[in-house]
Amino acid sequence: MKFGIDIGHNCPPRDIGASGIKKEDDLTKDVGNRLINKLKAAGHTVINCTPASASSVNDSLRKRVNTANNNNVDIFVSIHFNAFQPTNNPRGSEVFAISNAARGIAQPVLKEIVALGFKDRGVKNTAFYVLRNTSMPAILVECCFVDSQADMDLFDAEKMAEAITVGLIGESNDTPTPQPATLRITTKTILKPSTDDSGNLDPATLVDIETGDYPVLDSRFEERHFWVKWPDKSKANRDEHFVFEEFAELIES
Ligand SMILES: [Zn+2]
User: Fold this and answer.
1) pLDDT tens, 158-196?
2) Which of 18, 62, 88, 194 could bond 24 through an S-S bridge, CB–CB 3.0 to 4.6 Å?
3) Distance CA 147, CA 149 (A)
4) C-alpha 50 – ligand 1 centre gap (Å)
5) Of 147, 169, 191, which one is at a domain's C-terminal end?
6) CA torsion angle for 131, 135, 137, 138 (degrees, to 10)?
7) pTM given for the model
């Protein structure tokens, strides 16, 4: 797997994170770097999507998205910490995701963080810029609140990074083995890139696929779609796609 890890903010003076009992910039960097090392140690490729500098918040966000898209990462993960000044004393963890594929990644990550003792604030679907504009399943993790004493007492960067790692790749350190299969397209169809946001799709990215058998490298079934990874980019110039179940049948090899 190729992960795009985005360490939130950390682009002074324009894009700096929240400040509370601790600074979001310090915590995202600590958790993000540990996460990167853990994913690499487990045999995954990691692209650090955090820009070295940015002239504005928009420039900062655009650079993160461009790095993920240009490197064709499989999964994009943005690390943040919440703040809710000045009052109400909220605490806990939440993960944002705006597609079915991304929600399927967000849920286990949140579950692992909550298992550390943080309050479960749920998987939410606010369409943040980095979720909207990345062309692969993307999640934004709000680890916990930098202005909550309870959260900051509980927070440990190593445990947080480990929880996110386990949520992303599971307990095992083994690289997931692709499950080769054949996708039988039974009705001429278009293939849908890895997003649910079909309203914004560039028609040029949709491609007619004739009926027939197509080899795939890796596949999963998610809510009425097959997710397939092709051996090459000859299909719509992308190497992964969702295909609606009514148009296809997956034959495991
Ligand atoms: Zn943030």
Assistant:
1) 999 999 999 999 865 444 456 678 888 888 776 665 554
2) 18
3) 6
4) 13
5) 169
6) -30
7) 0.70
